[in-house]
Structures are given as structure tokens and as C-alpha cells.
Specification:
The protein has twelve helices and 24 strands. It has a five-stranded antiparallel beta sheet with strand order 2-1-24-23-22, with helices on both faces. Strands 19-9-7-4-20 form a five-stranded mixed beta sheet, covered by helices on one side. Helix 3 packs parallel to helix 7 and helix 4 crosses helix 5. With 527 residues, the chain is α/β, with parallel strands linked by helices.
């Protein structure tokens, strides 16, 4: 069994507690207690399930109080972690940017102002805020109008230069590009609602009042930036089968299928091509509503002059608060923005490479061995990310000493808690078991990839850090097996007083999209 790394205060104790020989796949200490032996047998039995036949598994469980490794199977094996990657990104962001960090979006002007006329350009400068709503752009426009500007003779310049112009993450597959979980990253963008999926628009298709007519299609927010190609039909009766998908490389959204008269509208989130232009379109419409006319064109990619005069500003929620929608709903866009923001703040370069370098340096300081893992993006969408379960456990054990830990721990999904921004991606899992309201953990899913890494408190009050990574399975989902392990850990007692058999928790079937990605990518359930 390989040695685990822990915070400095536990380092000596951890070395003593983990000095054991590697005997069985789940072996830990030389003389395990009867309770630990039963725990080994339980987890071994779960991992022997036929759904994992031919798959790869990496599972590690550690007592965070003593440093003792309670279970280790293939803990040093590099596997694809999916959204468990966000554990690295989120902890690094809190440490390197700070819980009080905010993103600012402002409006500035150049040229002379006289009697409501601005003889110059109006600059909309993006600060990377992934939570900007149409209402926030409306508030900025109101501030511009309140400053007395009525006519702008120059251009509306959309400044997204805080980050580079590489919009899509390294290694992302091209056919994911229209879906909300793979939205393009820009320093200037729009989110359609308070899930804050920046760079997306929600497209709605409502039935017409008569059969044979096309559905009524609208968007949230209202925008002319996307073009609707409505090929769908309203039918007198029958099952609704509306498909909404953006064509690759364009902002044409094609609506197909049918919807019955009287049915509820069908809605879907789709990404936009070049979100900077999307933000500028929403802001320009808001300016018109507030009586501000821009005579020039909309121009993007041009930096705001340092001497430009500020006329409006919006600050985001702080990073501590942002952790809740980010981690509870496993928001990929937040992870990628934070990666670029880390690079921008620490090195002046808003790029994936700069951000990932800084994240790697931070997690190495916590005790992760960055020489045996690879992180290619902030969210885990890349299949070239490779992290052993043992390294996740090292991180989980170490960050308990950080001053921001309580904020981060509360932002992790909590098993069996039905409220969306409490239970998050675990809200429908492990309900009615000892793990409900107990397990705080990050989920992860790609086709053939599943993970669950976090914390659980045992029946005798010990806090355990665990990581379960499962790869290369062919079945629809292995999440019930993850849940069984987590429930067994929640019921564990070192003195063996709890001997009742742990029944497998009830887990709903995993929704799947046509392209085969698991529940991570199906609204409103994410993982």
C-alpha cells in the first residue's frame, strides 16, 4: 500500500498509521479490527458487481482525524475523474483569489460629452463575470442613462480582452459544442437564469392554437443574436418530441419535431457562438429601452483605453457565494472562468495554461503529487484529465485546515437533500439512508466515467475523506454502487456496534442524452 499525504500537523501520525503491507486489494493496516475487516468485505463485494466487469476502479478511504487509511484499492491508479476535477479548481480558486473576490463589469466612455451627446465610443468592459444576467445589463444601461448620455456617435465596443480568445477547452469533443455544459468561455457573456450557465440561451417552443401551425418560439433572454429556424409542427394530439439544437459554427438554432395543442412549452439550453457578441446585443437592446441610442456599430475584441471615463459598473457576488451554484450544480463554465481568472490575477495572462499552472502549484502545496496526475481543464470535461483517487483524498484531508474550508464544505452537494441549492447533484441520491444529510461530495459523470469524492461522518462520529473513481464500464450507470459504498461508510463504527446489513440505496435511473453523456448534462439534473 502506498503512503498517503496529509496536512503538516498530521504528517507524522499518518506515516505511522499507514505503515502496512499490501496484502489484499483493499488492505490497510497489518492487523485490521473486526469492524474494518467487515468494511473491507462490504466494499470488495460492491466492487465485484457485474456492472463493473472489465472496468477500472480506484477507491480510497481515510480517517481525516488520525490519518489512518481504512481502504485502498488501486489508490495510485490514474483514472478519468470527470467533474471531480472541480475539487482542484475550486479549492485553488478560494486560496489564490480569496472568498471575497468579485468579477466587475463596467461601462466607460471616450470623447467629449455635451447636452446628452457623447462624441466617442461607449465601452462595455467584461471582467469575466459568469453570473451576468440580462437584468444586470439593463441596470448598467440605466446607469448610463442616469449619467445623462442620450446619443453615442461612436461605436459600442465589447471589450473581452481580460481573457484570451480560445473559447473552447483543450480536448473537448466537437459534437459537445452546442450543449450548455460546453459553452464558449469569454470575459464578457450572459447567463439566461440563476443557474448561471453563461454563454447559453434558453429556447422555448410553445404550441400554436391550432394544428398544422408552427410552434411559437421565443428565447430567454430575448435576443436577436440567435436565428431561429423553426421546422417543427403543432399537432392536434400526440406525444411532444421537440428537438432544439444549434448548428455547429453558427448561431442558427434549428427547432424540429412536434408539440400537441394545449401542451406545456418545451425548453432547452443551447450555447451561443461567440458570447461576447451575445452580451453586446443584450446590452445594446437595454440601452435602447433606456433611451440611449448608439449610432455606430458593435465592435468586439478591442481593449478599453486606460483613460476612458467610468459611467456604470456591476460587481458580481463574491467567490464564496459563487461556490454554491458552481459546486452544487457542477457548473462547467464557472470552472473554466475561474481557471482563466486565476491565470489573469496571478500572472497577468487569462489563459488555460496560466491558470492550470497556478492550480497545479497550489494543490502540490497541499500534498498532492502533481507528478502522477494530469489536469487539462478546470471542469473535467476533457477525457485527458487523469487523477488517482488517492490524490483526491490527500487534497480532501489537507484543505480541512484552510480558513475558507467551511464555505467550501457547505457548497459541496449533500446527499438526499431535495432542495436544489442544498442537495445539488446528490439531491435524489441516498435519501433515507445514514448517508442522507451526511455525505458532502463532488459528483462526476461522462459516458463510461463516474466519480464521487468527498466526506462522510461515520456512525461513531469520525470524519472520513473518500474518493471513488470508476472508468470503462459499459452499463448505463454505476452510481448506485458509489452510493452503496458511501452508505456503508456512514454506517461504519470502529467498535463494530452497528452490525445491521446495509441495504443498497434506491437510486433513480440515470437520464441519458442522445450522445450518450450521463445525467451530468441533462437539465435540470446535473452531476
Amino acid at each position: 500500500m502506498h503512503r498517503r499525504h496529509f496536512p503538516r500537523a498530521l504528517a507524522l501520525l499518518a506515516l505511522v498509521a499507514t505503515a502496512a503491507t499490501a496484502a489484499a486489494p483493499g488492505a490497510t493496516a497489518e492487523s485490521p479490527t473486526p469492524a474494518t475487516t467487515r468494511l473491507h468485505a462490504t466494499i470488495d463485494t460492491i466492487l465485484a458487481d457485474t456492472r463493473l466487469a472489465g472496468a477500472q476502479t480506484s477507491v480510497v478511504v481515510v480517517d481525516t482525524g488520525t490519518g489512518e487509511t481504512l481502504y485502498d484499492r488501486n489508490g495510485d491508479r490514474r483514472l478519468v475523474p470527470a467533474s471531480n476535477t472541480k475539487l482542484l479548481t475550486s479549492t485553488a480558486a478560494l486560496e489564490l483569489l480569496g472568498p471575497g473576490h468579485r468579477f466587475s463589469t463596467d461601462v466607460r466612455t471616450t470623447g467629449k460629452r455635451r447636452a446628452g451627446l457623447l462624441s466617442g465610443n461607449l465601452y462595455l468592459r467584461g471582467g469575466g463575470d459568469p453570473t451576468m444576467l440580462a437584468a444586470d445589463y439593463d441596470a448598467l444601461a440605466a446607469q448610463v442613462a442616469a449619467n445623462g448620455i442620450r446619443v453615442v456617435t461612436g461605436n459600442l465596443v465589447a471589450d473581452d480582452t481580460r481573457y484570451d480568445h480560445t473559447r473552447l477547452g483543450p480536448d473537448w469533443t466537437w459534437d459537445d459544442e452546442p450543449y450548455y455544459y460546453a459553452a464558449e468561455v469569454s470575459a464578457l457573456t450572459v447567463a439566461p437564469d440563476t443557474d448561471y450557465d453563461a454563454g447559453t440561451v434558453i429556447v422555448h417552443a410553445a404550441p400554436a392554437d391550432r394544428a398544422g401551425a408552427p410552434p411559437v418560439v421565443s428565447t430567454t433572454p430575448a435576443t436577436g443574436y440567435v436565428r431561429i429556424d423553426n421546422r417543427a409542427e403543432t399537432v392536434a394530439e400526440g406525444e411532444t418530441s421537440i428537438s432544439i439544437e444549434r448548428e455547429h459554427g453558427s448561431n442558427t438554432v434549428v427547432v424540429t419535431g412536434q408539440i400537441a395543442v394545449g401542451d406545456e412549452q418545451a425548453s432547452d439550453w443551447v450555447t451561443v457562438w461567440e458570447p461576447t457578441g451575445y452580451a453586446a446585443d443584450v446590452f445594446r437592446a437595454a440601452l435602447r429601452r433606456h433611451g440611449v441610442r448608439v449610432l455606430g456599430r458593435t465592435v468586439s475584441g478591442e481593449a478599453t483605453p486606460e483613460a476612458a471615463e467610468p459611467v456604470a459598473r456591476h460587481d458580481s457576488m463574491n467567490l464564496g457565494a459563487l461556490m454554491t451554484p458552481f459546486l452544487k450544480l457542477s457548473n462547467n463554465g464557472h470552472a473554466e472562468v475561474l481557471t482563466k481568472e486565476i491565470g489573469r490575477v496571478l500572472s497577468g495572462s487569462g489563459t488555460w495554461s496560466a491558470g492550470l499552472t497556478a492550480i497545479s502549484e497550489y494543490v502540490a502545496d497541499t500534498g498532492m503529487d502533481t507528478g502522477i496526475l494530469r489536469q487539462r481543464d478546470g471542469s473535467g470535461l476533457s477525457r485527458r484529465n487523469l487523477v488517482p483517487a488517492g490524490e483526491f483524498v490527500d487534497l480532501l484531508a489537507a484543505v480541512r485546515a484552510e480558513p475558507w474550508f467551511a464555505t467550501w464544505y457547505a457548497a459541496l452537494p449533500i446527499a438526499g437533500q431535495p432542495e436544489r441549492f442544498v442537495g445539488g447533484t446528490l439531491r435524489s441520491r441516498m435519501a433515507g439512508t445514514p448517508a442522507a444529510g451526511n455525505v458532502h461530495a463532488k459528483t462526476g459523470s461522462l459516458t463510461g466515467v463516474s466519480g464521487l469524492s468527498g466526506y462522510v461522518t461515520t456512525a461513531d462520529g469520525r470524519q472520513l475523506a473518500f474518493s471513488i473513481l470508476l472508468n470503462n464500464y459499459l452499463t448505463a450507470s454505476v452510481k448506485p454502487l458509489e452510493d452503496q459504498i458511501a452508505v456503508a461508510l456512514a454506517a461504519y463504527r470502529e467498535d463494530g456496534a452497528t452490525t445491521a446489513r446495509v441495504a443498497p440505496p434506491t437510486v433513480p435511473d440515470t437520464p441519458r442524452t442522445p450522445e450518450g453523456v450521463e445525467c451530468s448534462w441533462v437539465k435540470p439534473i446535473t452531476c
